């Protein structure tokens, strides 16, 4: 038999350098890990080889793919176990535990999905080195029954190589390049200031304490979701949609719910084969496709409006001559330049809208919580922000440049709570990782949650320390992968980073933050990592 089962309980310690092991909080412990027998299990303990301590085989050869430790060869049995024990919601913790047991590389089979999971100190540069790396997006499968969804898949997710790259470079000009950031940053700043204005009014009206110094304890998450949608719409469509008004539109709230449910219904779709899904998972698939339907209609309506605006402004320009060059948002820019087809514009805009709300709202929840439970860190960041703001003379870009601790705060939040917990690649050629041979086409995923919390990668990883990135130089190598890497990295990265920093900047200038309990937040994974219960934050006016 090539493999054997061992009992792993929470008290087992992996030998070798990986001393500390996190116990699973709130998760059913994994009862059995199955590993290849090649010298990996000694007297029921996990040996040095399986912990990945020994990087080369005894004879110095590159080791075979099937020598990589794994968690059970039968993907279907694993899937059933995961399902029964509701482990999907704790997959991030499960990965952390498995790395602690098996070392920095292991294979995982779950239903139809097989992957090689890696984390540092594994050398992962090889995985990201080649431009030709071929990622396949997992949602929005080509077998989708929904027409728009199929269109979207073809337009963005299934394209690869030069064709994909040419489109992406055009999109990058509008969302990633510094000239684009300069154009959209004031729009994000507008929304962040309005958010704080709204919050100040609310604290004054509903809060406790003497006038001018009132404080209010609340769950800020619904407001953060509205903030993220308002900010996305302003940058992408060049439109404010009034979500901070006393009666925000129901249509926008429906969009927020649709994205939330689309994300929540995605994970099962990743592990079941299409045929099975169409039978036993039909309601799930129908719901998933329906949510995409809402997302598409929301985008469609705005894209139509964008076209009307563009044609009327072009009409006006030709009547009056060159009119003012008002920034019309990413959509307006793409339409005006006309280099992407209408289908591609729609697909990309919808992708930006779907990817841009929860991904920023949730890290902001964690950020307010961590700043609240670390008052000294909060004060240090605030001092820097105040000084920078005073120097910047109202220019938001200068203000951010002068406050690197804000950027450090975002990095620190995404280290501890990576909203996307893995970054996947399918190498297009054979590669070697941790001295194991990885055939082309294998799904390899860098697992960010265990990476961010590893004592081998970060000094005192449990400590929230925004200064570690710039001041202590911990930002080198592949330690910061929250937005992915290379040509396929997150296309909304610059929007997200600036949006979150600006909001935190204005909040820190206006409020002192605190939390009633400094206990760790319990987290769960839907498609994104989020708090099990949103934290309550006390905002005290400064
Ligand atoms: C903290 C916020 C965010 C994080 C941590 C994040 C993370 C990621 C990651 C890890 C990827 C995959 C990258 C790779 O494979 O190398 C990704 C892709 C993507 N993200 Fe984000 N994201 C965030 C915010 C946003 C925002 C605000 C938008 C839209 C405005 C967005 C839109 C997208 C899109 C469209 C893709 C697919 C890109 C492609 O495959 O070409 N994301 N994101």
Automatic annotation (TrEMBL):
Family: Belongs to the cytochrome P450 family.
Gene this protein is translated from: CYP11B
SUPFAM superfamilies: Cytochrome P450
PROSITE patterns (UniProt xref): CYTOCHROME_P450
Broad EC category: oxidoreductase
Source domain of life: Eukaryota
UniProt KW Transcription regulation keyword: no
Enzyme Commission number: 1.14.15.4
Organism this protein belongs to: Micropogonias undulatus
Gene Ontology terms for molecular function: heme binding; iron ion binding; steroid 11-beta-monooxygenase activity
InterPro entries in UniProt: CYP11_CYP27_families, Cyt_P450, Cyt_P450_CS, Cyt_P450_E_grp-I, Cyt_P450_sf
GO biological process terms on file: C21-steroid hormone biosynthetic process; cellular response to peptide hormone stimulus; cholesterol metabolic process; cortisol metabolic process; glucocorticoid biosynthetic process
Gene3D superfamilies cross-referenced by the UniProt entry: Cytochrome P450
Compartments it resides in: Mitochondrion membrane
Keywords, alphabetical: Heme, Iron, Membrane, Metal-binding, Mitochondrion, Monooxygenase, Oxidoreductase, Steroidogenesis, Transit peptide
GO cellular component labels: mitochondrial inner membrane
Protein name: steroid 11beta-monooxygenase
Cofactors named for this entry: heme
Residues annotated for heme binding in this entry: 490
